[in-house]
Amino acid sequence: MSKRSAPEDAIEQSSVSAVKTSKESVPKSNVVEENDIDMGEFEDPYGDEFESDGEIIEVDSAEDDDEELDPEAVAKKIESEEQREQQEEESTIYLPHRSKPLGPDEVLEADPTVYEMLHNVNLPWPCLTVDILPDNLGNERRTYPASLYLTTATQASRGNANELITMKLSSLAKTLVKDDEEDDEDDNEDEDEDVDPVMDSEIISLKHTTNRIRVSPHASQTGEYLTATMSESGEVLIFDVASQFKAFDTPGFVVPKGAKRPIHTIRTHGNVEGYGLDWSPLINTGALLSGDLTGRVHLTSRTTSNWVTDKTPFFASQSSIEDIQWSTSENTVFATAGTDGYVRIWDTRSKKHKPALSVVASNTDVNVISWCNKISYLLASGHDDGSWGVWDLRNFNANTTPTPVANYDFHKSAVTSISFNPLDESIIAVSSEDNTVTLWDLAVEADDEEISNQRKETKELDDIPPQLLFVHWQKDVKDVRWHKQIPGCLVSTGGDGLNVWKTISV
C-alpha cells in the first residue's frame, strides 16, 4: 500500500513568494510599481542594474561568496533533491498496522502494479461472512475477464432489514499495470479487459444478523446449492439457492417464492447464537456441524426424506465454540476451536460425544481454524492475541504437549479468519482486526546470508518473517475465502463491502 497526499488545491497558497533569509532583508512584493512598467522587454532580472539598498534576496548560500548565482544550477539542485526524496519514499515499506498512522490529509491507495485483479463490491450493510459458490465454468481458470459466484449475509441496524445476498460477478478485468515494453501479442489477449464489471444479485430476506455462512462444497456436482447460515438468534437456516444460481445465467427465469424460504431450520441451539459452522467435504448427501457460545456442537445429517439433528451435543467445555472444521480425509473426524484456548479433535462415532484429543493452542481465544486440503495432517489456528500457527496432527496425543511446526505473531490484533490455499498447501491467508489480510508461503526457507543482506538494504525488514508474501488492506475485515477454481483469487469481506482480488505473489 502507498500513501497519497491530499489534493494540492486543498492547501492554502500564500500570496507572497519571496524568501527572507536575513534580518535586514524583506520579502519582495508582488505589487507592480509604476517604474517597473517601462522595463525593457529583454531585461535580465538577475542583472546588476537592479539597485536596492534594503532588498538582498538569497536563494541559496554558495560555498564561495564571490561566486555568481547560476539559475540553471539552482534548478538542477532542486530537481536532484526532489528525486532523492522520492526515492526515499519509494523505498519505505508501509505496513498499515505497524507504521505510523496516516495524517489527516493522507489516505491508503492500493498499488495496481502488485495486483493482478482488484475489485470492490459495495453493499447496503456490512457483512461478517462470505462464501464462494462452486460453478461449472471450469477449473484452473486464468483468463480474463473472470466470472465468479458468491453469497454473503448482512449485519443491518435493524433485524428485519437483514438479507442473504447471492450474486454473480462477471467481466472482472485484469488490473495489473502493464509494462510499455510488453509484446503486442499479450495486448491482443487482454483487449477485452476494458469492459465494465457486472454484478447480478438475488435477495432473500432474513430476520436476524448472520454470524457465519457456508456453502456445501458438493453444490456443483449435486445441483443443490445447500447454504447454511448461523444467525444471532441461535437458529441455523439451510437454504437451497440453486434457483438463484440458475437465474443468473437463464434470461427471463423468475426465482420461485419457495426458493426464498429455508428448506430446514435447526433450533437445537435454542436462543444461543454461535459462530462454528461447516459442511462435510466428504459426505455429499449433506452433513452439517454447528457450534454455539455454550460450547455445544450439534451434527445435522440428511436422510432420504428429511434432515435430522442429533439431540445429544458434542461437549467438553462451556467455553464458546468459535470455529469448526471437518477433516479433509476422514468423514467422521472434525476439529473445533474454543475461547478456552483449546483445539479439540472429535469423532462422530463416539457414543460419549467427548473429544478424542485436546491441545492448548493459545493462552487466548482460538478464533479460527483451517484444515489443509492437500496434506490432511496439517491444521492452522488463529488466535485472539494476533498470533497464528500450523500444527502437525501426528504429534497430537494424550501424553505430550505438542508445539506448532510454524508460529507467527506478525499481526497486532485478533485473527478473524485463516485459510489454507486449496490448490497449494504451503500458502495461507490470514485476516486480522488490524484491517489487513496477509498471505504467507511456508515453503520459503531463506538462508541466513540472504536475510542478512535484506536487512542491511532495508531496515524495515528486520522483524518481518521471510515467509510473508503480501499485505492487503481492508477496513474491518472479517472473513476471507479462496476460490478453488480460480488459482490465487480471494474474496474478503469487511466494513466497506467485499474485495475480490488476486496478487502477483500467488
From TrEMBL:
Basic and acidic residues bias locations: 73-86
Record-level GO cellular component terms: nucleolus
InterPro entries, alphabetized: Glutamate-rich_WD_repeat, Histone-bd_RBBP4-like_N, WD40/YVTN_repeat-like_dom_sf, WD40_repeat_dom_sf, WD40_rpt
UniProt WD repeat ranges: 314-356, 408-442
GO molecular function: unfolded protein binding
Keywords: Repeat, WD repeat
Sequence segments annotated as region (Disordered): 1-104, 177-196
Biological processes, Gene Ontology terms: ribosome biogenesis
Acidic residues biased stretches: 33-71, 179-196
Keyword Disulfide bond set for record: no
Record-linked Pfam families: CAF1C_H4-bd, WD40
Domain Histone-binding protein RBBP4-like N-terminal: 105-172
Name of the protein in question: Ribosome assembly protein
Naturally occurring in which organism (per UniProt): Scheffersomyces stipitis (strain ATCC 58785 / CBS 6054 / NBRC 10063 / NRRL Y-11545) (Yeast)
